[in-house]
Design brief:
Phosphorylase Kinase, domain 1, five-stranded antiparallel β-sheet, 12% strand, Prot_kinase_dom, kinase, serine/threonine-protein kinase
C-alpha cells in the first residue's frame, strides 16, 4: 500500500514539474517574441553615447534607419540597423558599403561616423539628411528656375568628382539616393546609398556586374560590355534632364523596350516643356548622354559654361533676373501625370489579378497582368495610350468615384486587393 501511495505522490510531483517547465518555456518564447518586435539588443556603448528615438526614417529589405541624438552635443544622426540574419549571401555588399562610407568625407556625400556590432546586428551611424529626397522637396517649392536646377546638378557633380578621385564608382545615382541636408531654402544636396558602389583598384578597371535602376542606368551596363566611372556621368545626364522638365528622357511600354531606347540613346526635347530652357543646358545634357568613351569626366563637366552662365561666381547661388522662368508648373504637371498613370496601371493590374482565377474573366491573362504591372517600374512621362484600353480607364474611373485610393507600389497589395474586390463586386464592364 505504501508503494502505491509513494507512486501517486511522485506522479503528482512529476506533473507539477512538467507544468512548471511548460510555463517557463512559454515565458521564454514570449520574451523572445517581444525582443524580436523591439529589435536586436543594442550595443551598450552605443546606448551610452546616443539616445535612440522611436522615429523611423526608413525601412528596407536589410535594414531599418532610425534617428538618434548624441548625448554630449544634442546633434542628430541616422542609425542604420542591419540584422545579420537578413544578410545571407549579401555580406560582401555590406562590407563594400562600410568600406566606402568610412573613407568618404565630402559636403555632398553622406559619411559613416561610427560603427558598432553585436552578435545579432551591425549598427552604422551616419550623417542625417533631414531635408528628404530630391524631388519630394522640389515639388513643395513655389518657384524653381533653371539656375536652381544648375546648382543642384553642380553639387551632385562635386560629390561625384570627389568619389571618382577616390576611385569609387557609385553605380546607382538616382533622385531617391539624393537627399537634402536640411529643409532650408538652399540646403546642401548629399549623395547616399553606396550599396552598389565599387572601389576601383586600378585606373582602368572594368566592371561587369549589371546593376542600377531602370531609367537611370547607362547603356554599357545593359549591354554588359564592361563599365566604370562614366556610368555615373550618364546618370547625372538623366537627372539633369529630369530636373529641368519633370520626366526622364527615355521611356518604354515595358522594361525591354525601355532598355532598347536607352541603348539607342535616342531622346528629344519636347517644345512644350523645353521652350524656356537654355541651349547651354541642353548642350550639357547632350555631352553626357553619349557613348561612354565620349563622356566628360566629372572634373571636366564642372567647367561646362552652363554653370558659369546661370550661377554666380560662388557656383552656389543661381543668377535670378526678374524675368527668370518658373519651371515648377511644368515640373509638377509631369510628376502628377506620372503618379496618376502609375496608379492607373496599378489599379488595372490588381483588377486583372482579382479576375485571373475566374474562368469568364474579361480582363486578360495573368501574363497580361504581369506586363501591365511592369510599367510601374518605368521612368519617363509614361505615354499610357498603348498600354491601357478604354475599358481599363473606365474601370479606374469607376474605382476612383468609389473613393478607393491606390498606391504605386506593391507594399499594400493585400489591403488594396480586398478593397478592389468590394469595389468591383457590382461592376459589369466588359473589355472589347
Amino acid at each position: 500500500m505504501m508503494k502505491i501511495i509513494d507512486k501517486i505522490k511522485n506522479h503528482g510531483h512529476e506533473h507539477d514539474n512538467a507544468a512548471v517547465e511548460k510555463a517557463a518555456a512559454e515565458a521564454a518564447a514570449q520574451q523572445r517574441r517581444e525582443q524580436e518586435q523591439k529589435g536586436p539588443k543594442m550595443h551598450p556603448e552605443l546606448l551610452e553615447l546616443y539616445t535612440v528615438s522611436d522615429k523611423v526614417l526608413g525601412v528596407g529589405t536589410f535594414a531599418t534607419v532610425k534617428e538618434i541624438v548624441e548625448k554630449s552635443t544634442g546633434k542628430k544622426f541616422a542609425l542604420k540597423i542591419i540584422l545579420k540574419k537578413t544578410l545571407q549571401g549579401k555580406a560582401a555588399m555590406l562590407e563594400t558599403e562600410i568600406s566606402i562610407l568610412s573613407k568618404v568625407r565630402h559636403p555632398n556625400c553622406v559619411s559613416l561616423l561610427e560603427l558598432f556590432e553585436t552578435d545579432d546586428a551591425v549598427y552604422l551611424i551616419t550623417d542625417l539628411a533631414e531635408g528628404g529626397e530630391l524631388f519630394d522637396q522640389l515639388l513643395q517649392k513655389g518657384f524653381y528656375t533653371e539656375g536652381d536646377a544648375a546648382r543642384l546638378v553642380y553639387e551632385i557633380l562635386s560629390g561625384v568628382e570627389y568619389l571618382h578621385k577616390m576611385g569609387i564608382v557609385h553605380r546607382d545615382l538616382k533622385p531617391e539616393n539624393l537627399l537634402f541636408a536640411d529643409k532650408s531654402e538652399n540646403a546642401r544636396l548629399m549623395i547616399t546609398d553606396f550599396g552598389l558602389s565599387k572601389v576601383l583598384t586600378g585606373g582602368n578597371d572594368v566592371l561587369m556586374t549589371a546593376c542600377g535602376t531602370p531609367g537611370y542606368v547607362a547603356p554599357e551596363v545593359l549591354e554588359q560590355i564592361g563599365h566604370g566611372k562614366p556610368v555615373d556621368m550618364w546618370s547625372i545626364g538623366v537627372i539633369a534632364y529630369t530636373l529641368l522638365c519633370g520626366y526622364t528622357p527615355f521611356w518604354g511600354d515595358d522594361q525591354p523596350s525601355l532598355f532598347e531606347n536607352i541603348i539607342s540613346g535616342q531622346y528629344e526635347y519636347e517644345e512644350e516643356y523645353w521652350k524656356d530652357i537654355s541651349d547651354l543646358a541642353k548642350n550639357f545634357i547632350d555631352s553626357l548622354l553619349v557613348p561612354a568613351d565620349k563622356r566628360p569626366t566629372a572634373t571636366l563637366a564642372l567647367s561646362h559654361p552652363w554653370f558659369r552662365t546661370v550661377l554666380e561666381q560662388d557656383m552656389v547661388t543661381p543668377v535670378s533676373p526678374t524675368d527668370s522662368v518658373n519651371l515648377m508648373p511644368g515640373m509638377r504637371k509631369n510628376f502628377n501625370a506620372r503618379s496618376t498613370f502609375k496608379k492607373a496601371v496599378r489599379a488595372v493590374g490588381l483588377i486583372r489579378k482579382i479576375n485571373a482565377n475566374s474562368s469568364d474573366s474579361s480582363f486578360g491573362s495573368g501574363e497580361d497582368m504581369a506586363s501591365q504591372q511592369e510599367v510601374t517600374m518605368i521612368g519617363g512621362k509614361g505615354r499610357p495610350s498603348s498600354t491601357l484600353s478604354f475599358h481599363d480607364i473606365v474601370n479606374v474611373a469607376v474605382l476612383s468615384s468609389k473613393g478607393l485610393g491606390l498606391s504605386t507600389t506593391e507594399e499594400d497589395e493585400d489591403g488594396e486587393t480586398e478593397g478592389l474586390e468590394k469595389a468591383t463586386a457590382n461592376l459589369d464592364i466588359k473589355d472589347s
